């Protein structure tokens, strides 16, 4: 017997959560983990454009992190959320790794003296799109946090990730010899 991708359980506009329970598909929890899922897909797309090994090597574990964050956000039980964060190793140490990647990227760049317009190469443009989706995911998690306890590390991680995506976009342009257009 093969499993089918469709279950029909969501045909009335609700969805099941990890650990049980159902909520409407427009519930803030579903929005939050849906935004994280979209971010993961957009990062996957950015990785597939103009392969750049050092950039892509930084982003592969980020995708694993985002998969774990999405699962955690789909879990209404706070203790199970924390267990998933620990299992996924999303902690201050992981945030420090993102910060190190930001610092490494900035080491390749001229200091930023003005706002830059998103764009440049296909790789950089894809990373800029990922950055804006990351910010949207962060806002969705903050919205969820108003009514539901969400570990603060989730917001810290997404905030740092958006900074990393910005720096990686700049690095991609620099490595390709594309200039930045300032505002």
Automatic annotation (TrEMBL):
Its EC number is 2.5.1.17. It is found in: Cytoplasm. Residues 5-172 form the Cobalamin adenosyltransferase-like domain. SUPFAM superfamilies: Cobalamin adenosyltransferase-like. Signal peptide: none annotated. It holds the Pfam family Cob_adeno_trans. It comes from the Bacteria. Keywords: ATP-binding, Cobalamin biosynthesis, Cytoplasm, Nucleotide-binding, Transferase. One of its GO terms (biological process) is cobalamin biosynthetic process. GO terms for molecular function: ATP binding; corrinoid adenosyltransferase activity. It catalyses: 2 cob(II)yrinate a,c diamide + reduced [electron-transfer flavoprotein] + 2 ATP = 2 adenosylcob(III)yrinate a,c-diamide + 2 triphosphate + oxidized [electron-transfer flavoprotein] + 3 H(+); 2 cob(II)alamin + reduced [electron-transfer flavoprotein] + 2 ATP = 2 adenosylcob(III)alamin + 2 triphosphate + oxidized [electron-transfer flavoprotein] + 3 H(+). One of its GO terms (cellular component) is cytoplasm. Pathway: Cofactor biosynthesis; adenosylcobalamin biosynthesis; adenosylcobalamin from cob(II)yrinate a,c-diamide: step 2/7. It is an enzyme of class 2 (transferase). NCBIfam families: PduO_Nterm. Belongs to the Cob(I)alamin adenosyltransferase family. This is Corrinoid adenosyltransferase. It comes from Pseudogemmatithrix spongiicola.
């Amino acid at each position: 017997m093969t499993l089918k991708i469709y279950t029909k359980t969501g045909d009335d506009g609700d969805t099941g959560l990890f650990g049980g329970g159902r909520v409407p598909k427009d519930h803030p929890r579903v929005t939050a983990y849906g935004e994280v899922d979209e971010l993961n897909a957009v990062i996957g797309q950015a990785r597939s454009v103009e392969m750049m090994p050092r950039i892509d090597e930084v982003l592969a574990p980020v995708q694993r992190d985002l998969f774990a964050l999405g699962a955690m956000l789909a879990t209404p039980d706070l203790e199970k959320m924390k267990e998933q964060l620990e299992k996924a190793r999303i902690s201050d140490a992981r945030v420090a790794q993102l910060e190190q990647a930001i610092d490494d990227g900035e080491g390749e760049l001229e200091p930023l003296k003005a706002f830059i317009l998103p764009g440049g190469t296909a790789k950089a443009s894809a990373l800029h799109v990922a950055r804006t989706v990351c910010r949207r995911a962060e806002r969705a998690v903050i919205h969820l946090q108003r009514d539901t306890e969400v570990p603060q590390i989730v917001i810290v991680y997404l905030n740092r990730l958006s900074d990393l995506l910005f720096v990686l976009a700049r690095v991609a342009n620099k490595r390709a010899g594309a200039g930045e257009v300032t505002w």
